[in-house]
């Protein structure tokens, strides 16, 4: 039954993903969103909203011109880096030390996940070691205390 | 005396500094004497009481200083340099008031005043635990001394203009700040920032005195939640201000100053979650202490980033030398925290260990992991340009593309955990329980994804496929989490209905009243998911820009915007250019919008006033970009931003949920009884005979 359900879901997913058509690609838009306006506003080049901005207009013209030459995306970006410096890129994508910007958060996340997993494993083992091998008779007063504690621990109040 | 009010303000600040120093020294000395049993000439208890009273008096002194600055703004006292640079005669009264926090010195004074106000409340409520409150009061006084030293020596708000002769008018307030939200956004944000000093002070104090048990967490729970709420409101008001004023069609630009406010929010949220493990199971004690230490340090770092010029930001105050003050202060705090932790670490031993990977505890651990990973990523992205300049000699830009690429997957993981965590039990969850609790949310996730794709949401066919795919995943996960939350409400309300014979709605209200903290928390989660759905809508934003003459129109996804007219106007404060635009959807006129562009004469700066037509599905966001100097016709940019209202609705739900969580729960076995004068209450210890419905209210927990 569940197998049939999975098949139906898969067919539905396949059907809807195959429908429709894509939109045309625009390298001008794509590259324009990888550059930052150099007027000091810190905005993406194609989103700079200052009318009469002395910088964004000429930069957009330069972008049009570079895209029209047929240069690949990397070539256009390199042209801008050459003219304005690496600060013109909206994100560090030049390789070398720039890669550190991307690698460090991933490494920290992976290390932290491993750390948490190890911690859980260690706690779990220690907890298992603390469990008595053979259950012994527990006096009534102790069971009452335990019951209270369990009630407190498993209380929904959180 | 030529300048009475500035002199009064300066004197008040000096007095506050003296009082706070006394609070710190006498507090520390008395606590040391009490803890070591040393005999002093004065009773340590009396000394402690004088410390508390001096702390209360310092609040009055700082209030006088804040009053003096506001008075100077309202009376146009341009002999005060700060007032000269941040106000002018034509400025509206509300904005004269907000001048208190629109510049470096004023905002530091606001910080000091709010800290004094928090300290005032803490010292008045000292009877909750006299010794712990004394520790917290002394630590707060230490923080306050730092800010007062800054105000007295490094950034005096009452400095007189060079030569002492007041100009006829001021230079005006930054036009971007002349917006109603700017009157409440900074105080909210500061209430959040400063508020974290209180749980920090309690945590450090509890560690210093080896406070037994977890009572300090109960004492600070409301402080932390209220502070978290203020910070949430502050950040969201800032988002709304950016959306309505800056005119770029967005609300979050990952600017360093925005990031600075987000960092303590992330660690504060992690603290609010992980502290439950300490309350319930006596676990994560050291971790929690460091979370609140880190949160406080991040609030100071945020203030430092805004003021030191360490990172470039459009929000930042002018570069100044006070960055080194903040850095030194952070180093001192870190050393004190580290030393106290190392010295007292045996006091923080956990009472319990994790028993199962599939449990509420482990979900809290992963929740903390994700929140801290997000915090690290944002901090890393904010400071990487500085590191890059140090290593490579050239600065790089860490713009929205970096943050979106790294932070969005983390955000999605957080939504997933928001759904999973509350469905797991403490200690261990059985397979049967997992199957029972998760089947419905999983169906909701799949059904939403299929329906959305069937409706045409197929982002992999777009140019920017990643954003669309993330949005699709966000919608599907959001639906799953909402289903899980509602299923929990329905399950609980159903049990109460069978117990009390109430209808489902009344049962749900009873359920919430019985456990306000749990169900308030669910409402907050619901609000967060609604907010995320709104944020995901940005993947489908559209925009168009056109120079418009009379009768010209722009078509955008079913909307037609027709230019009826454009004109100019002016008042004492600013000149304005505006356009009158009729908006049609289909053939029906739905509204008229008036986007403006203002030129403020005093500050010689321009600002946009965006016109927004908002619906639940989308915002039509229209910006007057300016006039083409050749044709003199307005340039209009139109954005169609889907689901933006969901963000603000989500914030409203979060606020409501936090209020619910702050309300004390209905105690089992209690009920309200109206008593008339001729039928007095029975003696207190006599059993109260409740009618069946009320008896059931206090019956067994669901």
UniProtKB/TrEMBL annotation, chain A:
Secretion signal, residue range per the UniProt entry: 1-21
Coiled-coil intervals, chain numbering: none
Regions crossing the membrane: 100-120
Domain CcmH/CycL/Ccl2/NrfF N-terminal: 25-130
Function: Possible subunit of a heme lyase.
Domain of life: Bacteria
Entry similarity comment: Belongs to the CcmH/CycL/Ccl2/NrfF family.
Protein name: Cytochrome c-type biogenesis protein
A molecular-function term among this protein's GO annotations: metal ion binding
InterPro entries: CcmH/CycL/Ccl2/NrfF_N, CcmH/CycL/NrfF/Ccl2_sf
Entry keyword set: Heme, Iron, Membrane, Metal-binding, Signal, Transmembrane, Transmembrane helix
From TrEMBL, chain B:
A single Gene Ontology CC term: plasma membrane
Domain Cytochrome c assembly protein, first and last residues per copy: 101-308
Keywords noted in UniProt: Cell inner membrane, Cell membrane, Cytochrome c-type biogenesis, Membrane, Transmembrane, Transmembrane helix
Subcellular location: Cell inner membrane
GO molecular function terms attached to this record: heme binding; heme transmembrane transporter activity
GO BP term, example: cytochrome complex assembly
Segments traversing the membrane: 12-34, 54-74, 108-125, 132-155, 188-207, 228-254, 260-277, 289-310, 322-343, 364-386, 406-426, 438-461, 467-490, 519-540, 643-663
Chief location of this protein within or outside the cell: membrane
InterPro entries: CcmF_C (IPR032523), Cyt_c_assembly (IPR002541), Cyt_c_biogenesis (IPR003567), Cyt_c_biogenesis_CcmF (IPR003568)
Cytochrome c-type biogenesis protein CcmF C-terminal domain mapped to chain residues: 329-663
Membrane topology: Multi-pass membrane protein
Span list, region Disordered: 677-702
Pfam families, per the entry: CcmF_C (PF16327), Cytochrom_C_asm (PF01578)
Role summary: Required for the biogenesis of c-type cytochromes. Possible subunit of a heme lyase.
UniProt record similarity statement: Belongs to the CcmF/CycK/Ccl1/NrfE/CcsA family.
Name of the protein described by the UniProt record: Cytochrome c-type biogenesis protein CcmF
Protein species of origin: Granulicella mallensis
């Amino acid at each position: 039954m569940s197998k049939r359900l999975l098949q139906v879901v898969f067919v539905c997913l396949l059907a809807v993903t195959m429908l429709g058509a894509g939109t045309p690609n625009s390298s001008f838009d794509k590259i324009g969103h990888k550059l930052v306006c150099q007027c000091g506003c810190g905005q993406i080049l194609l989103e700079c909203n200052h009318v009469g901005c002395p910088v964004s207009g000429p930069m957009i013209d330069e972008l049009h011109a570079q895209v029209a030459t047929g240069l690949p995306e990397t070539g256009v970006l390199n042209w801008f880096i050459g003219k304005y410096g690496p600060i013109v890129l909206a994100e560090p994508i030049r390789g070398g030390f720039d890669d550190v910007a991307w690698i460090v958060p991933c490494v920290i996340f992976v290390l932290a996940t491993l750390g948490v997993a190890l911690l859980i494993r260690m706690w779990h083992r220690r907890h298992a070691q603390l469990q008595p091998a053979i259950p012994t008779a527990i006096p009534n007063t102790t069971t009452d205390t335990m019951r209270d504690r369990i009630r407190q621990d498993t209380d929904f109040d959180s | 005396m030529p300048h009475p009010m500035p002199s009064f303000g300066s004197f008040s600040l000096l007095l506050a500094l003296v009082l706070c120093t006394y609070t710190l020294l006498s507090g520390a000395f008395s606590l040391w004497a009490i803890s070591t049993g040393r005999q002093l000439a004065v009773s340590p208890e009396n000394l402690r009481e004088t410390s508390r009273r001096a702390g209360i008096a310092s609040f009055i002194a700082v209030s006088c200083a804040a009053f003096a600055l506001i008075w100077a703004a309202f009376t146009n006292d341009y002999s005060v340099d700060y007032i000269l640079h941040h106000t002018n005669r034509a400025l509206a009264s509300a904005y004269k008031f907000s001048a208190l926090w629109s510049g470096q010195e004023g905002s530091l004074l606001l910080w000091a005043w709010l800290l004094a106000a928090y300290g005032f409340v803490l010292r008045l409520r000292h009877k909750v635990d006299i010794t712990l409150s004394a520790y917290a009061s002394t630590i707060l006084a230490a923080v306050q001394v730092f800010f007062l030293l800054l105000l007295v020596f490094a950034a005096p708000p009452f400095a007189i203009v060079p030569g002492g002769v007041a100009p006829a008018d001021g230079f005006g307030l930054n036009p971007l700040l002349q917006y109603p939200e700017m009157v409440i956004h900074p105080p909210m944000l500061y209430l959040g920032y400063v508020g974290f000093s209180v749980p920090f002070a309690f945590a450090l104090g509890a560690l210093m005195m080896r406070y037994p048990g977890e009572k300090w967490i109960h004492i600070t729970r409301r402080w932390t939640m209220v502070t978290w709420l203020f910070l949430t409101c502050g950040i969201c008001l800032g988002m709304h201000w950016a959306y309505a004023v800056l005119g770029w069609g967005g609300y979050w630009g990952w600017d360093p100053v925005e990031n600075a406010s987000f960092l303590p929010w992330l660690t504060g949220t992690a603290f609010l979650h992980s502290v439950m493990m300490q309350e319930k199971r006596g676990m994560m004690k050291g971790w929690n202490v460091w979370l609140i230490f880190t949160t406080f340090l991040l609030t100071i770092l945020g203030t430092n980033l805004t003021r030191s010029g360490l990172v470039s930001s459009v929000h930042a105050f002018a570069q100044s030398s006070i960055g080194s003050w903040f850095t030194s202060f952070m180093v001192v705090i870190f050393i004190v925290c580290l030393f106290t932790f190392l010295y007292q670490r045996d006091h923080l031993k956990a009472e319990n260990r994790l028993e199962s990977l599939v449990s509420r505890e482990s979900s809290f651990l992963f929740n903390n992991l994700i929140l801290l990973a997000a915090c690290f990523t944002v901090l890393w992205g904010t400071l990487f340009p500085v590191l890059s300049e140090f290593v490579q000699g050239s600065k790089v830009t860490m713009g929205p593309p970096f943050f979106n690429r790294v932070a969005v997957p983390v955000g999605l993981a957080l939504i997933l955990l928001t759904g999973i965590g509350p469905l797991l039990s403490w200690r261990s969850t059985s397979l049967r329980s997992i199957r029972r609790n998760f089947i419905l949310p999983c169906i909701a996730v799949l059904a939403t994804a299929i329906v959305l794709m069937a409706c045409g949401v197929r982002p992999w066919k777009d140019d920017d496929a990643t954003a669309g795919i993330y949005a699709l995943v966000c919608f599907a996960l959001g639906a799953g989490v909402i289903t899980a939350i509602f299923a929990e409400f329905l399950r609980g309300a159903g049990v109460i209905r069978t117990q009390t014979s109430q209808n489902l709605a009344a049962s749900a209200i009873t359920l919430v009243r019985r456990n306000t903290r749990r169900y308030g928390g669910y409402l907050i989660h619901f609000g967060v998911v609604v907010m995320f759905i709104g944020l995901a809508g940005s993947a489908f934003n559209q925009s168009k820009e056109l120079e418009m003459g009379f009768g010209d129109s722009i078509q955008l996804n079913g909307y037609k915007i027709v230019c009826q007219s454009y004109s100019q106007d002016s008042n004492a404060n600013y000149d304005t250019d505006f356009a009158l635009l009729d908006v049609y959807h289909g053939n029906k006129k739905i509204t008229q919008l008036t986007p403006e562009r203002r030129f403020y004469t005093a500050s010689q700066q321009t600002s946009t006033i965006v016109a927004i037509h908002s619906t639940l599905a989308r915002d039509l966001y229209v910006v007057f970009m300016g006039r083409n100097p050749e044709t003199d016709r307005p340039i209009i940019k139109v954005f169609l931003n889907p689901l933006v209202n969901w963000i603000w609705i989500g914030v409203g739900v979060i606020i409501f949920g936090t209020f619910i969580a702050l309300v004390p729960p209905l105690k089992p076995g209690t009920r309200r009884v109206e008593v008339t004068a001729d039928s007095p209450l029975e003696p207190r210890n006599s059993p109260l005979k409740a009618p069946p419905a009320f008896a059931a209210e206090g019956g067994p927990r669901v």
